[in-house]
Each structure stands twice: as structure tokens, then as C-alpha cells.
Write a structure and sequence with these properties.
Blueprint lengths: L8 H10 L6 E3 L22 E6 L3 E2 L5 E9 L5 E7 L4 H15 L4 E4 L15 H8 L3 E4 L9 H14 L7 H17 L36 E4 L5 E4 L2 E4 L8 E8 L2 E6 L2 E7 L6 E4 L6 E3 L3
Parallel strand pairs: 2-6, 6-7
Antiparallel strand pairs: 1-15, 2-4, 3-4, 4-5, 8-11, 9-10, 11-12, 12-13, 13-14
């Protein structure tokens, strides 16, 4: 009589957990490199170490159209890199402004933003088209903690001054308002002294970055022992026979997978951890949609 084929231990474990007959132990991945780009505020200490970006709250112009000011600042020197007025907080306008600044000023080491669109999303790694654009240039992406505007204090300060100087009353049209923004940028950079930098004007200490913007960045290279997968236009990748959805923001990009425990794979895009894949189950499954989440530990 042939021996019966028994199910895998991982399958039995999964069934028992779902039935509530055993408890799944949980553990946190505490490795610093697994925390991803999110975290509390780190102040920039030298030019282009950190840029900060945000949208100032919208207001109506004289012609009743809405204006959303995009503001970008060098954190250490308080040099205002951009105040561009847009009719929405859409991705294309933000990407256009950043590309122009990258070409004029070079690249920062990192960019700090909040968790709102278009800088972040609610998906895996909170990736957006904008943040992936930054990462492709080798820029580290940092974000404020959710609900903590104090994590970007110097940028919040510029917004108070911007509103008082340019929006009370607002310009009659978008073009007139943009002229006000341009005048404000010159005043902030060339005339206004800042207590945090010894009452000097930002233009006295800011210098462009030596890191140049690249129209076609080099393809990322992962360690030779990693698995590499190309993300499809739909945001999925194929891994061990399964289709796993990551993010449409990564369409066309290559991600690396490193096995960090038996059957547990860490998925990375460039230097950022995105999620984990559990291949101990019958079908490979994403088990944590961000590095901050807890990962089930299976005993076999």
C-alpha cells in the first residue's frame, strides 16, 4: 500500500492558525536598514544635504481660480529653491519643477516631504511617481511621521511668511500671483536675514550641488546573490510562479529580493526596503506592506 502524501508543515501551520488552534508569534525587523525612508526629522547641516518640499494650502486668486503654491527649500541654508503656483497638486507640475531645479542647482542627498500626494501614496513603500523620480537619481527619500507637521519645522516657518507676504490680498491672476512668488523668493534669498544662520541671507552661504542631474540614470545593480525582477506596467512582478502587486510607480524598474530568513524575502528598490514576501506558504504572499509592520514568524 503506497504511503499517503502528507501536506507541508507550513500548510498545516497556516490551517491551524486560521482555525485559532495555535497562536502566530510576531517579531519586528529592527535592522536600521529595514526601516525604509520614513522617520522623524533630521535637520540638514550643510548645503544640499537635505531639501524640504511641501504644498502651501490653496487659496483663491482674484479671478476665483485656485492656487496651490509648491515650495522647495534647502534645509541648512534656508535658501528657497522654488515657489511655483499650480492649479492643483498634480504629479506632472511637481516633476517639472524638480527637473528644472535639478538642472539648475544639482541634486541633494535627500528630500524630506510629508505623506501627502503626490510626494507619497498609501501603497507599498508609500511610493509615488515623484518619489521614484527622486530615487532614480540616487536621492534618499525621507518623510515626516503621519500627523507630525513638526517634523518639517523650517518649512512650516517659510509658509507662514509666504502667506503674509504674497496672499493677503492674492494676485488677480495666476501670472500676477507668480510674479509675487518670484519677488518673494528673491527677498527671502537675498535680503532677509535668518536667526538660525547668524542673521545672514541664504544666498551668502548656499552653493549649488556638485552632484549633477542625469537624464538617463544608470540601471541599479543589486548584489549577485539577490533575485532581480522587473516590474510590469500593471505594477506586478513574477516571483516563484506568483504574480505579486507592488506599485505602478515602479513600472519598468528593477527590484531586488534577498532571502533574509528561510522562505522570507526582503524586496528592495535601490537602497530602500519595500516589503517582505513569504514563500513558506503554498503561494508566495506579501506579508508586510511596509518595513514598519510586523512579520509573522513560522516555526517549522
Amino acid at each position: 500500500m503506497p504511503l499517503a502524501q502528507l501536506p507541508a508543515v507550513s500548510t498545516v501551520s497556516s490551517i491551524l492558525i486560521k482555525a485559532g488552534l495555535i497562536e502566530s508569534k510576531l517579531r519586528k525587523r529592527r535592522d536600521p536598514d529595514l526601516r525604509g525612508p520614513d522617520g522623524s526629522y533630521r535637520a540638514g547641516t550643510r548645503p544640499n544635504e537635505q531639501w524640504t518640499v511641501d504644498f502651501k494650502g490653496q487659496f483663491r486668486l482674484g479671478d476665483r481660480s485656485l492656487c496651490y503654491p509648491l515650495t522647495i527649500q534647502d534645509d541648512a541654508t534656508r535658501f528657497v529653491l522654488c515657489v511655483d503656483g499650480y492649479g492643483s497638486t498634480g504629479t506632472n507640475g511637481v516633476m517639472t519643477s524638480f527637473q528644472k531645479i535639478f538642472q539648475e542647482r544639482g541634486l541633494p542627498e535627500r528630500i524630506h516631504s510629508d505623506n501627502g500626494s503626490p510626494f507619497a501614496s498609501s501603497g507599498i513603500g508609500r511610493l509615488s511617481r515623484v518619489s521614484v523620480q527622486w530615487m532614480r537619481q540616487g536621492i534618499e527619500v525621507c518623510r515626516s511621521r503621519v500627523g507630525h507637521p513638526q517634523d518639517n519645522p523650517r518649512h512650516e516657518r517659510i509658509h507662514r511668511t509666504l502667506k503674509a507676504q504674497t496672499a493677503r490680498p492674492p494676485g488677480a491672476t495666476a501670472l500676477a500671483q507668480q510674479r509675487r512668488f518670484s519677488k518673494f523668493v528673491r527677498w527671502m534669498n537675498e535680503e532677509r536675514g535668518h536667526e538660525g544662520i547668524g542673521m545672514r541671507a541664504p544666498c551668502e552661504i548656499y552653493t549649488p550641488s556638485a552632484r549633477e542631474w542625469c537624464h538617463r540614470p544608470d540601471a541599479v545593480e543589486y548584489p549577485g546573490h539577490w533575485e532581480v525582477r522587473r516590474i510590469r506596467q500593471c505594477g506586478e512582478m513574477k516571483f516563484q510562479g506568483a504574480s505579486l502587486f507592488l506599485s505602478t510607480a515602479l513600472a519598468g524598474e528593477a527590484v531586488g529580493l534577498a532571502e533574509i530568513d528561510e522562505g522570507i524575502w526582503r524586496v528592495c528598490y535601490r537602497n530602500s526596503a519595500l516589503c517582505f514576501v513569504n514563500t513558506r506558504l503554498d503561494t508566495p504572499t506579501i506579508i508586510a506592506e511596509s518595513p514598519d509592520e510586523e512579520i509573522p514568524e513560522c516555526d517549522e
